[in-house]
């Protein structure tokens, strides 16, 4: 996929993989607008992800998330950090595939460590009844094939400055 100024760059990966942190830095470096789809959900809906999930369930959130991605995808030249489960819906995968998709990989132990340090249950509610580590492993088993199928590049889990440098080098290939 050729990267133009109009091409949206989507960061995908599990919760706590660093999509928002890297996305902000990448957007700043590239001089592009940044959007965090989870933050956009809160701004548009006026409620947290956890509140909607508690009231209506995960399916309702996934539909709302799809609407936000659809609106975001109409814009051009963004760097967008997605929610970890955005890849679950086929229509979302089709929208993401129209941009450049970067998969932020991370080991389950590292994800658990990050989530324990910053639980943020309002924006990162539990996905299952499993314990945190088991949930991460199960979720990755389900989603990683989808992440890999969409990814134009896979970014290794490194400190953010190293990830930014790696990402900028990877973008030059496009």
UniProtKB/TrEMBL annotation:
<dbReference type="InterPro" id="IPR031322">
    <property type="entry name" value="Shikimate/glucono_kinase"/>
</dbReference>
<keyword id="KW-0460">Magnesium</keyword>
<dbReference type="GO" id="GO:0009073">
    <property type="term" value="P:aromatic amino acid family biosynthetic process"/>
</dbReference>
<keyword id="KW-0057">Aromatic amino acid biosynthesis</keyword>
<feature type="binding site">
    <location>
        <position position="62"/>
    </location>
    <ligand>
        <name>substrate</name>
    </ligand>
</feature>
<dbReference type="GO" id="GO:0009423">
    <property type="term" value="P:chorismate biosynthetic process"/>
</dbReference>
<feature type="binding site">
    <location>
        <position position="38"/>
    </location>
    <ligand>
        <name>substrate</name>
    </ligand>
</feature>
<comment type="subunit">
    <text>Monomer.</text>
</comment>
<keyword id="KW-0963">Cytoplasm</keyword>
<keyword id="KW-0067">ATP-binding</keyword>
<dbReference type="InterPro" id="IPR000623">
    <property type="entry name" value="Shikimate_kinase/TSH1"/>
</dbReference>
<keyword id="KW-0547">Nucleotide-binding</keyword>
<dbReference type="GO" id="GO:0008652">
    <property type="term" value="P:amino acid biosynthetic process"/>
</dbReference>
<keyword id="KW-0418">Kinase</keyword>
<feature type="binding site">
    <location>
        <begin position="16"/>
        <end position="21"/>
    </location>
    <ligand>
        <name>ATP</name>
    </ligand>
</feature>
<feature type="binding site">
    <location>
        <position position="20"/>
    </location>
    <ligand>
        <name>Mg(2+)</name>
    </ligand>
</feature>
<dbReference type="GO" id="GO:0004765">
    <property type="term" value="F:shikimate kinase activity"/>
</dbReference>
<keyword id="KW-0028">Amino-acid biosynthesis</keyword>
<comment type="function">
    <text>Catalyzes the specific phosphorylation of the 3-hydroxyl group of shikimic acid using ATP as a cosubstrate.</text>
</comment>
<dbReference type="Pfam" id="PF01202">
    <property type="entry name" value="SKI"/>
</dbReference>
<comment type="pathway">
    <text>Metabolic intermediate biosynthesis; chorismate biosynthesis; chorismate from D-erythrose 4-phosphate and phosphoenolpyruvate: step 5/7.</text>
</comment>
<keyword id="KW-0808">Transferase</keyword>
<protein>
    <recommendedName>
        <fullName>Shikimate kinase</fullName>
        <ecNumber>2.7.1.71</ecNumber>
    </recommendedName>
</protein>
<dbReference type="InterPro" id="IPR027417">
    <property type="entry name" value="P-loop_NTPase"/>
</dbReference>
<dbReference type="GO" id="GO:0000287">
    <property type="term" value="F:magnesium ion binding"/>
</dbReference>
<feature type="binding site">
    <location>
        <position position="124"/>
    </location>
    <ligand>
        <name>ATP</name>
    </ligand>
</feature>
<dbReference type="GO" id="GO:0005524">
    <property type="term" value="F:ATP binding"/>
</dbReference>
<dbReference type="GO" id="GO:0005829">
    <property type="term" value="C:cytosol"/>
</dbReference>
<comment type="similarity">
    <text>Belongs to the shikimate kinase family.</text>
</comment>
<keyword id="KW-0479">Metal-binding</keyword>
<feature type="binding site">
    <location>
        <position position="143"/>
    </location>
    <ligand>
        <name>substrate</name>
    </ligand>
</feature>
<feature type="binding site">
    <location>
        <position position="84"/>
    </location>
    <ligand>
        <name>substrate</name>
    </ligand>
</feature>
């Amino acid at each position: 996929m050729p990267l133009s100024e109009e091409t949206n760059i989507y960061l995908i990966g599990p919760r706590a993989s660093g999509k928002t942190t890297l996305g902000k830095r990448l957007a700043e470096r590239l001089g592009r607008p940044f959007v965090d789809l989870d933050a956009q959900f809160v701004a548009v809906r006026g409620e947290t992800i956890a509140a909607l999930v508690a009231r209506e369930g995960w399916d309702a959130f996934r539909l709302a998330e799809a609407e936000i991605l659809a609106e975001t995808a109409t814009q051009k030249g963004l760097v967008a950090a997605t929610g970890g489960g955005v890849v679950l819906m086929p229509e979302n995968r089709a929208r993401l595939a129209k941009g450049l998709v970067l998969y932020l990989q991370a080991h389950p132990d590292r994800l658990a460590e990050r989530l324990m340090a910053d639980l943020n249950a309002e924006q990162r509610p539990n996905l299952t009844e499993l314990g945190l580590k088991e949930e991460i492993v199960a979720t990755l088993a389900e989603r990683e094939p989808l992440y890999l199928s969409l990814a134009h590049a896979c970014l290794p889990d490194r400190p953010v400055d190293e990830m930014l440098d790696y990402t900028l080098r990877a973008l030059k290939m496009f």
